[in-house]
Predict the 3D structure of the following.
Amino acid sequence: MKHLNSYKTFESMQRDNCERCGGDTKGKTTMSMFNQDVICMGCKDAEKNHPKYKDAHEADNAAIKSGDYNFKGIGKPDDL
């Protein structure tokens, strides 16, 4: 349990408003799989349902495996 004391939130991920839709994040955000936007959970749900989400997820995993921890994503589709 000692490791739990070292947990810190990612202050750089905290936003009052979603960078994609502009809506209230209600204190919950995540990084987009398509680009580096910090988005609300509603926008994350929309991403997960997008046909290109699997491609974005696979590209992110490949980047991480190759040592790229700052992958910028495959780009946000116009219809998101």
Summary: Residues 12 and 38 are 9 Å apart (CA to CA).
